[in-house]
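Recall the central idea of this unit: under ordinary conditions, the amino acid sequence of a chain determines the structure it adopts. In this exercise we apply that idea directly, starting from the sequence alone.
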Amino acid sequence: MLISNLHKFLTYPVKKKSDRGVIFWFSLSMTFAVLYGFLALKKAFASGLSVQDDARQHIFWMQRFFNPDLFPNDLIADYFQSVAPAGYTWLYKSATFIGINPFILAKIIPFILGLICTYYIFRICLEILPVPMAGFIAALVMNQAIWMKDDVASATPRAFVYPFFLAFLYYLIRGSLVRMGIAIALVGLFYPQYVFIASGMLILRLICWRDGRFELSSEKPDFLLCGVGLSTAFFVLLPYALTSSEFGPVISREAAMKLREFYPNGRSTFFHVHPKDFWLTGKRSGMFPKSLFTPATQCAGLVLPFLLSFGSAFPLIKNITSRIWLLVHLLLSSLGMFFIAHALLFRLHLPSRYTGLSFRIIIALATAIALTLIIDALFDWAENRQKYPVKYKNFICLTLIGLILASLVLYPAFVKGFPLVKYKVGRATDLYEFFQEQPEDILIASLEEEANLLPTFAQRSILLGREYAIPYQVGYYSQFRQRVIDLIVAQYSSDLMDVKSFIQRYGIDFWMLHRGGFTPEYVEDNSWLMQYESAQDAVTFLQLGYIPALATTIPICTVFQNDSLFVLDANCILGKGVGSRE
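Accordingly, the structure predicted from this sequence is:
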């Protein structure tokens, strides 16, 4: 009796969304989404000086919404503002009208996005297999995948593609014309690359398998959905196609292959020696994201194709609807765009961006369906087979099902630091306060890692920083790269005139140095700096025992120092005296 009741509760299909089982499992799904989101919020607000790793790039310039005088003539701020999608910019700018700081909003948004993702992945799963527990498993593993990677936590444009693309999939599978079109428009306004995936799926939907061969669909609604969807996609992508970037053109494959930045240990590693790394596992070039099977319980999704071949052993298979073709269409469209992006490198940005989210959605749904089929089969085995005594069968059945469900629910407890939101905490408060006291138009030169946090916490411009070394648009990166080379040369030159010439060329006001910045180990241990030949020359220079000219100015030109840093006044280095500005 216990086995029979549990069987009905866990794996029996439902016919109505208002069924009590649907409400229970959906509520449980949202409970876990709230719990994970709350843990993320707790980390986000653990410090008043915390910022998500990638938000440093994509959000720091939005402080201009509150104070337009910030970051004047700032190459880095202007570039990241120019590449921000329209919808993304509009959302944050709208929030500033009611006094919400972009960095505060960026900490709250991931919580909301996680809830939206939970709703849609649950509903999509029910459309494919109308078993509420399957929807719960899909939502649970999708939430765990979201919070074990920092895409959604970043609140950057790629965070928004998760809920909006899931919304597109749900309304596509439901045949909801208007809502599907709105979802495509939202995808385009926040993360335009995935509009291509959506378009491919709309076209594939017109092809069906009938009588042993492929042919065009005979259903008018399919053509109507495709027409509306493709029209929406065209109009939402048109502004991107007609607008030329002031920081273009996009770097070519040939040009990228000449830069060390695109090779292993480079800032934007793309080209790999081994084909497996290049095509399959490379972070930017590969088909499969390394976190695809995170959580590891999603490996169960790999067995789904095999389970579908044994209908007699898994009775619940007959309840899987034809809407499971959605997963096939998503897979094919994503693979198609992956290879097109490789062929047009880098005009459609990075190939891996076209498979990462798609494969996570596919594997989450496949995992939910596969585990639900297995659990149902275990119940069926316990209820119907007479080979073993009932008590043994019940014990084996309940133990195995308990282990499956426990592994799903408890998995995050064994992940150190869950949720993995990658927040950076600014600890040099006295440094930030010092720069905030300076005029808003100052420019700071530094090779130190701390410089990456200055635009966020000090609201002052920096000449360069590793975090902002994005090499995909030539108009931006050619200037940025030259700045890095020039700064390395000046910082480690034996001639003070080189230092003065650099300051005058770029209009530097302050120069921030690490206390160990004039040792060969400081340069050698920085893989980003070692991309540049000038850094290798600097190491040789220091190893020979030479003293950089800039080091001789530290005793007289230091205007701020702490346990790890010196800040030098550039005017003092020029010989104009500490604190003077002409």
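The chain has a mean pLDDT of 93.
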